[in-house]
Specification:
Radius of gyration: 27 Å
Strand content: 25-35%
CATH topology of the largest domain: Thrombin, subunit H
CATH architecture of the largest domain: Beta Barrel
CATH class of the largest domain: Mainly Beta
């Protein structure tokens, strides 16, 4: 599931999945929850026999003291975007109508020269006016104003933003000291109390409470998704606001919710404090974020891929191909390698690899543990700076068509790439696929180019057949193919019939 921000309300990301939507939270409302009693029960009597549990005395009776301490640091963030075109002009907007941010961010006002506004939340992290909010709250903003808990309004400037983690850093220069809060040093445990403060539906200073429901959530926002899930009610307008632990430290930045209606159903997502802190430090120093770059296209190791490689378990990041002149290529990383550790940290999948590399500074050395042909190797390299753009021109799929032969190559009709115009000289081109065959069912499409099968480069259909037969003779139930398409290079594990 992926999420998209909502400008029209300053809202977070939203994607429909059935009736469920992922919603970014800027500019909407929260339903406050009253916490009554040490265990959060609203009323009634519960009979207990025997001595009271030890943890009952440690559970906070309420959050009033906590809120009084942190609330002055929480701000409402209001932004304005000025459009130069009329309401009916769809071709030249500040936020294009085809942008994922358009549907749920800001609403147009006026007819010819439109002013778009949105509201979110934020919080001061230093007495001199540095404040944190979400990137999607201030994206495309012409002006930014913040309102403090006492009703004072100040102009803020955007110091820097990081769309990949949805963090933005603001600065208010007012010649005065502001109340501020600090990031927590440790991640909360699942089940810990959490208190959210924000500006839902423009109702600044709203407080809700709940618990941490899960950690390490992926919502499809970026390769670096690592969200905390909380059940403290948060809604549109809470975007960029803080979530606190019982010590008054920020454990996360509210960013998105899952919702069938746009309102809170108790599934919210926060950017963890450790991630936010690293990003904010870089934004404060440079105005932008630099990330380490390894330079590989990778994919998760599925059970079928693990079987085809002879691995004991489905874990690690499978290298589709190293980028030319990248640190990986220079260090000898090859296609079909499986990266299992980075600097001693286990890599469970491709997302974990992206996160580990991205939070390592460019120019730093990294020690990679890989599996190659069933053997473990260690490779040391120096990470580079992630390029701003990584785009490749890809040839259009060939237009030739040929009826597939179901008995031939797992339901594919093949031809040497060198014989098909526009596909290059390497590999074997898929001319057509049987829609009911194993190849099509595992994502192989017409126009794909098979580069290698079972770890062996192929140039002719007969070599493909030989490699498949060799896989069968080894007793494996899947054959691993490296396939190139307009979207990039990837591995595909296709089941093969035995006998």
């Amino acid at each position: 599931m992926s999420a998209e921000p909502d400008p029209r309300t300053g809202d977070c990301r939203n994607q429909t999945s059935g009736r469920l939507r992922m919603v970014l939270l800027s500019s909407a409302a929260a339903i406050a929850i009253a916490v009554a009693g040490p265990l959060g029960f609203a009323g009634g009597t519960i009979g207990l026999t025997g001595p009271a549990p030890a943890y009952a005395a440690e559970t906070p009776p309420g959050f009033a003291d906590l809120v009084a301490k942190v609330k002055p640091a929480v701000i409402s963030v209001r932004v304005k975007i000025e459009e130069q075109n009329s309401a009916n002009n769809e071709n030249n907007e500040a936020i294009p109508r085809n942008s994922p941010f358009y549907r749920f961010f800001f609403g147009p006002h006026g007819e010819s020269k439109q002013v778009i506004t949105g509201e979110g939340s934020g919080f001061f992290i230093s007495p001199d006016g540095y404040a944190v909010t979400n990137n999607h709250v201030v994206d495309h903003a012409k002006t930014v104003q913040v309102t403090t808990d006492d009703g004072s309004i100040y102009t803020a400037k955007v110091v820097g933003t990081d769309p990949k983690t949805d963090i933005a850093l603001l600065k208010v220069d007012a010649g005065k000291q502001f109340g501020y809060v600090q990031f927590a040093d440790q991640r909360p445990r699942v089940g810990d109390w959490v208190v959210a403060v924000g500006n839902p539906f423009g109702l600044g200073g709203t407080v809700t409470a709940g618990i941490v429901s899960a950690s390490g959530r992926e919502i499809g926002a970026s390769p670096y998704d690592d969200y905390l899930q909380i059940d403290a009610p948060i809604n549109k307008g809470n975007s960029g606001g803080p979530a606190f632990n019982t010590d008054g430290k920020v454990i996360g930045v509210n960013s998105a919710i899952v919702s069938p209606s746009g309102g809170s159903v108790g599934i919210g997502f926060d950017i963890p404090a450790d991630t936010a802190k690293l990003v904010v430090d870089e934004l404060k120093q440079k105005g932008f974020v630099t990330r380490g770059w390894l330079g590989v296209q990778v994919q998760p190791v599925t059970a079928a891929i693990a079987d085809s490689l002879g691995l004991n378990k489905a874990a690690g990041a499978l290298v589709d191909q190293p980028e030319p002149n990248s640190p990986a290529a220079k260090a000898g990383i090859k296609a079909r390698d499986v990266i299992t550790e980075v600097n001693g940290t286990p890599i469970k999948d491709a997302r974990a690899l992206a996160q580990q590399i991205a939070k390592t500074a460019p120019g730093s050395s990294a020690k990679l543990t890989i599996l190659r042909d069933g053997k473990t190797q260690n490779i040391e390299l120096t990470l580079a700076t992630m390029p701003k753009q990584e785009e490749e021109a890809n040839a259009q799929p060939p237009q030739q068509r040929q009826e597939p032969s179901p008995e031939q190559h797992l339901g594919m009709s093949l031809a040497p790439a060198q014989d098909v115009e526009g596909t290059g000289k390497e590999g074997v081109v898929v001319l057509n696929v049987d829609p009911n065959g194993p190849a099509a069912q595992n994502g192989v499409e017409t126009g794909d180019v098979i580069l290698d099968v079972g770890g062996k480069a192929v140039q002719t259909p007969s070599q493909v057949r030989e490699a498949i037969n060799q896989t069968k003779s080894q007793g494996r139930h899947s054959v691993l193919m490296r396939v190139k398409s307009p979207q990039g290079t990837r591995y595909v594990a296709i089941p093969v019939a035995q006998g």
